[in-house]
Design a protein that fits this description.
The complex is a heterodimer. By secondary structure, chain A is mostly helical. Chain A has one domain: Cytochrome C Oxidase, Chain A. A two-stranded antiparallel ribbon of chain A has the order 1-2. Chain A is globular, with a radius of gyration of 24 Å. By secondary structure, chain B is α+β, with helices and mostly antiparallel strands. Chain B folds into 3 domains: 86 residues; 139 residues, Immunoglobulin-like (Sandwich); 78 residues, no CATH class. Chain B contains 9 helices and 10 strands. Chain B has a 5-stranded mixed β-sheet. A 5-stranded mixed β-sheet of chain B has the order 4-10-9-6-7. In chain B, a hairpin with a 2-residue loop joins strand 1 and strand 2. In chain B, helix 2 runs antiparallel to helix 3, helix 3 packs antiparallel against helix 4 and helix 5 packs antiparallel against helix 6. Chain B is extended. Classes of the chains: A mainly alpha, B alpha+beta. At the A-B interface, helix 3, helix 4, strand 1, helix 8 and helix 9 of A face helix 1, helix 2, helix 3, helix 4 and helix 6 of B.
């Protein structure tokens, strides 16, 4: 409890305290997100006005990669690649899970800290190291990795294949290896903490849905990230030690390589064995946050609590047997494709249940439109809009023509990217008072929300229509194809929305930094919420609670319960005579 | 100048935000704003805005549909593609209904149950009947989608007809080559070690194989000679030695292949025909594309035929379809005399990935035969 006398280094840098580590994850993740976002704006300029000169490109990329302000095709591919890597892993995996798992798991289950504060600290510093290496790879002479965020070999394995497959690719692999270690250390810690350190009365059936979601996320991560690690390791072997795991019969740059017997499809399988669960690693915490924020601000219990847990578990399980839907036209046996069609479409059922439960939570509620609630409502919208197009892409027959077109880009950006980002904003606006002890400016929050939400759809929704016209993704320019000329307007529209939406994020950044220091002081329980994190003092202390740990008597969703004085009943309030807990109503 | 302007914009932007914040601060102070409570005025404007947003979203959807429908791919030029298009329309119908209904509910609930008009929430935790309905309804709909989808997929992908014309699509950074099997409809064997300046696809016939073996000797000798110009035992020298060793090893592998395949009929390659820039196929006949790659993964994407398959180094993938609309007919249908069916690369493959295309000409059987007979056989057209 001696927070103030602690030296700077152990308090702010090498802290074992989960609340500090959570803030470290949030800030690092946000900085990475801004880098990833600026990259997307740079390549969007080229897509909207191909071959035009922009001095801003020259400012950022220099004469080598943007001579005369015109983007170099290799740098275009590099920007696309690193944008994807940063957004998927650094923002939406580490930034989202790292922040909210660290903040909420101990606080919501009533624990003094994570099971191992030391491993938790290591997890952050591996992530930090990984971020540094990824950023460093941008400054390599031959350019950063540029084979797409999936880095399929042989393109990524053979340095002769493209400039980005040289030192940049090596650093990409080093960075990802560090990232995986970070993710495993974090994930194991989250699982152990949730299983062992729940306070008295905090049964699994009383856990807030955030904790359930983060729990299943951690399990998925621990089971699937090692497979990516194996894939990366074999790729390192192929690149540096002359093995042929993924390589066979390659003639490149005038030479027949001495590699036989490997298969690029092996990499596909290993990569997507992580790659698909990965999108659920991203979206499950978003579900958890949305459940919490929607229930609290609708002043109504989350509808179908048990069904929500069931859906999270079902999605977690199914996420492991759907990876082949990324490979319908990869050369994999079409019959295996049929099996993946079946499993992939099954996952739509628990997803639909979740969407309906969110809607029904709003029904007959008494909604308070805080900025967090606005973002949570936006998350429900983007999850549905992006989710339904998944039904089309899951159908192998339809994927034949839509695979790797803008339809896919639109689908995954909306369902996974936007939904997770919207939920992350909801989480930040909701728990900012818990993290920093101050309130964010609400009006700036609304401003940020509306510009972001409108621009988000403005950017990604039109891309469906490009996809239906057969426009392939990852093309530097479409000017070689008169067929696509009529769609150039869409590219321009998308870029304009992207620029405005991008600028709006600076409103958020400003609000964030400003409120950290000068926002109004937060009361202990600003939102009238039930869960345990709001019973801790506003000023952070080691061990979270002064005196004994709280004892839990009820689930976290007793909002507007009949016969109660307030419209919320914290989990620490004992049940009255004859009062029924949870769903048993 | 431009950099200065950008700098100016950034400075002005920051100044503007600072001013905005100060105004907010003052107004917050005056109104007792605490960052927590949402005023009834704010709530009402937000619930109305959400309804307007959803209405605007629908309008945007309809606008995009109306404005860009003309650029969607025209009707499928292949037989299986027509079935795919019907399936796509069916799925679109379902998801559009779901999308519209859920968004109307989202807007309506936000509007109707805002705390200004619904001051007290009803304590409802679950409803088994309702949940059963919305679990089983999607399950039934998805079962239909799965069965319908798999039927279409299986008929498109499984069982290539025996009477198909065999054509190879060969990808490399950054162009395509089409290879016709000739009169025997059998494509000649190939091996990546056979690739040379005069044999870009590495096709094998008896003469070419022997030629390649002696060529490899010559290449090794040339490497050996180049050693005279480098410091003996130095790094470059060691690299050259490695290359010589590899050349010998690869020659050995070719010889071994030749020795093991004594019953192999390499003459099937003799009538193979190679084309670049464009290739022709006859209308109404199944075409079986055997797809190969020289270097990295590419993808043979023929959007007008609803056809796509990756080209993977080290393996042969395939895709077959039956074209049903000739290029001329399609030009009339889309009203563009310059229209051409396209083959594109649709898997990121390096610097010039964005420009790797071939035109596909679909024509009558007679025109196709005429065109084919005008093409030179590769082993006649080539250097030998």
């Amino acid at each position: 409890m001696s927070g103030h006398s602690e030296p700077f280094i152990t308090k702010y840098l090498f802290s074992h305290d989960h609340k500090m580590i959570s803030r470290q994850f949030l800030i690092t993740g946000t900085i990475m997100a801004f880098i990833g976002m600026i990259m997307s704006l740079l390549f969007r300029l080229q897509l909207a006005w191909p071959g035009e000169s922009f001095s801003i490109l020259n400012v950022f990329l220099g004469d080598k990669w943007a001579p005369g302000g015109v983007l170099d095709p290799n740098m275009y591919l590099a920007l696309v690649t690193i944008h994807g890597t940063i957004m998927v892993f650094f923002l939406l995996t580490a930034g989202l899970s790292g922040t909210f798992a660290n903040l909420l798991i101990p606080l919501q289950i009533g624990a003094r800290d994570m099971a191992s504060g030391f491993l938790n600290m290591l997890s952050y510093w591996f992530f930090f190291g990984s971020s540094v290496v990824m950023i460093a790879s941008l400054f390599v002479e031959s350019g950063p990795a540029a084979g797409g965020w999936t880095v399929y070999p042989p393109l990524s394995a053979v340095p002769e294949a493209m400039p980005g497959s040289g030192a940049g690719m090596t650093l990409w692999l080093v960075s990802m290896s560090l990232f995986i270690i970070s993710s495993l250390l974090g994930g194991l810690n989250y699982i152990v903490t949730i299983i062992n350190l729940r306070t008295k009365g905090m049964n699994m059936t009383r856990l807030p849905l955030t904790v359930w979601a983060l729990f299943v996320t951690a399990i998925i991560g621990v089971l699937s990230f090692p497979v990516l690690f194996a894939a990366a390791l074999l790729l390192i072997f192929d690149r540096s030690f002359g093995t042929s795991f993924y390589l066979s019969d390659i003639y490149i740059a005038g030479e027949a390589l001495d590699r036989t017997g490997g298969s690029p499809l092996l990499y596909h399988h290993l990569f997507w064995f992580l790659g698909h669960p990965e999108v659920y690693i991203i979206i499950l915490p978003a579900f958890g946050i949305a459940s919490e924020v929607i229930s609290c601000n609708a002043r109504k219990p989350i509808f179908g609590y048990r069904a929500m847990i069931g859906s999270i578990l079902a999605i977690g399980f199914l996420s492991f047997i759907v990876w082949g839907h990324h490979m319908y036209v990869s050369g994999m046996n079409p019959f295996i494709g049929s099996v993946f069609v079946f499993t992939t479409l099954l996952i739509a059922i628990p997803s639909a249940v979740k969407a309906f439960n969110y809607l029904t939570t709003l029904w007959k509620g008494s909604i308070r439109f805080t900025p967090a609630m606005m973002f949570a409502i936006a998350m429900v919208s983007t999850f549905i809009t992006g989710g339904v197009t998944g039904i089309i892409l899951a159908d192998a027959a339809l994927d034949i023509n839509l695979h790797d077109t803008y339809f896919v880009v639109a689908h995954f950006h909306i369902v996974m990217g936007l939904s997770a980002v919207m939920a992350m904003f909801a989480g930040v606006y909701h728990w900012f008072p818990k993290m920093w002890g101050r309130m964010l400016n609400k009006k700036l929050g609304y401003l940020h929300f509306w510009i972001t939400f409108i621009c988000a759809y403005g950017v990604f929704f039109p891309q469906h229509f490009q996809g239906l016209a057969g426009v392939p993704r990852r093309y530097y320019t479409y000017s070689e194809f008169p067929l696509f000329d009529g769609l150039q307007d869409i590219s321009i529209l998308v870029t304009l929305f992207a620029i405005v939406g991008g600028l709006a994020q600076f409103i958020f950044a400003f609000n964030f930094v400003y409120s950290m220091f000068r926002g109004p002081r937060a009361p202990q329980n600003p939102w009238g919420a039930n869960s345990l994190e709001w019973t801790t003092p506003v000023e952070h202390i080691h061990g979270n609670w002064v005196g004994d740990l709280p004892v839990v008597h009820r689930w976290a969703y007793d909002y507007s319960k009949p016969g109660k004085e307030h419209d919320f009943v914290p989990q620490t309030v004992p049940l009255e005579e004859g009062e029924v807990d949870g769903e048993g109503h | 100048m431009a950099s200065f302007l950008i700098f100016l914009v950034i400075v002005l932007g920051i100044a503007a935000i600072v001013q905005v914040i100060r105004v907010f601060e003052i107004s917050n102070f005056l109104q007792g704003e605490d960052g927590i409570s949402v005023s009834p005025r704010e709530t009402n404007s937000l619930r109305i805005s959400l309804v307007l947003f959803v209405a605007g979203f629908f309008a945007f959807f309809i606008y995009l549909w109306v404005a860009y429908k003309q650029y969607f791919l025209p009707e499928s030029a292949s037989e299986h593609g027509a079935a795919i298009d019907t399936l796509l329309n069916f799925n679109f119908l379902i998801i559009t209904i779901v999308f519209v209904i859920t968004h109307i509910l989202l807007a309506y609930f936000s509007y109707r149950y805002a705390n200004t008009v619904s001051p007290k929430a009803t304590f409802v935790t679950h409803n088994n009947k309702l949940e059963l309905i919305w679990t089983s309804a999607p399950a039934v709909v998805l079962a239909i989608i799965i069965i319908y989808g798999l039927t279409t997929w299986n008929s498109a992908m499984l069982d290539t007809p025996d009477d198909s014309i065999n054509i190879e699509l060969y990808a490399r950074q950054f162009d395509w080559t089409a290879r016709y099997a000739g009169e025997d409809n059998v494509l000649g064997k190939s091996n990546y070690l056979m690739i040379s300046a005069t044999n870009p696809l590495g096709i094998i016939n008896e003469t070419k194989l022997k030629e390649r073996l002696s060529e490899m000797d010559a290449e090794a000798a040339e490497l050996e000679a180049s050693r005279a110009e480098v410091y003996p035992g130095g790094k470059t020298d060691m690299e050259i030695l490695d290359k010589i060793a590899l050349k010998k090893k690869q020659k050995g592998r070719l010889e071994q292949m030749y020795a093991q395949g004594e019953n192999e009929d390499y003459s099937v390659a003799d009538d193979d025909i190679l084309t670049k820039v464009e290739f022709h196929i006859p209308v109404g006949k199944p075409v079986n594309f055997q797809i190969r790659s020289q270097d990295v993964i590419h993808s043979a994407f023929m959007p007008h035929f609803r056809a796509q398959m990756n080209a993977v180094p080290g393996m042969i993938t395939n895709f077959y379809f039956t074209p049903i609309i000739t290029t001329d007919e399609m030009r009339k249908k889309v009203g563009d005399p310059n229209f051409n069916y396209l083959l594109l690369c649709n898997k990121i493959c390096g610097t010039a990935h964005y420009n790797m295309q071939m035109n596909i000409i679909v024509e009558s059987e007679a025109d196709y035969q005429k065109w084919l007979s005008e093409q030179k056989k590769f082993f006649v057209a080539g250097t030998n």
